[in-house]
Design goal:
single chain, about 250 residues, alpha+beta, four-stranded mixed beta sheet, 9 helices, about 55% helix, elongated
Length: about 250
Amino acid sequence: MKAIHWLASTFTSSPYVEIDGNNFLTALNQDQEMDTARLVLDDTSLVLIVLCILFVAGRVIAYSPRMRRHEGNRPWRSRPRGVGRRRPPPSAGPAASARDSDAADLAAEQLKAVSRASYKARPLLNRPEAAVFKALDAAVVGRNPSWQVMAQVSLGEFLTASDKSAFLAINSKRVDFALMNEQCQVVHALEYQGTGHYRGQSAAARDAVKKEALRKAGIGYHEIVAGHTTPSELRALVGKLVPAARDEQAA
């Protein structure tokens, strides 16, 4: 303040400047206030600039391809069904493309192996099984022509499972004969137990797996034992399992 008063007295005492000391101090205070206002405005402008930069950067990140794929997997709970962005199909995405590529490579390797090998046809059934099949087919057609006998059917063709590992456990297993109704639904599974059926140690375990899966699916399981495969015996079995045709029931 002493320096300011000295400057004021110097200016007022100068022959070239006529200014009142108090007016000089007032003007100096006003200049200081204006400088402070400019600093405040500069700080505010800087903050606004920074906010604008952050906003633009956020929008760029939000619309980047990676973020859009991430948002596509989120459930849109706040929006009604049918409104909003559609989810990508299950086949989309790098993981699905990799699986499809692996499957194509496997198929290509299998084709090479098949091309190098030689093949020849063989009977679907051996002689005892073929004899049982013919007798069963004749009995089923005579009982109800809308029913069919299928041979060597994989369980995975007519059973489903809630667990993948459980399905794989039965997918490749087969039944010797399957009785299919007019709706193409398998109702009964028949297993022919030949003379050498239980020679292997795992035969009983495999049969237990098939029996349990069929039981849970509500499909009957029946065994045809070697030595009890005469046409009359098979007709009696079919009479218990296959309903008679409607015209026979009416008669």
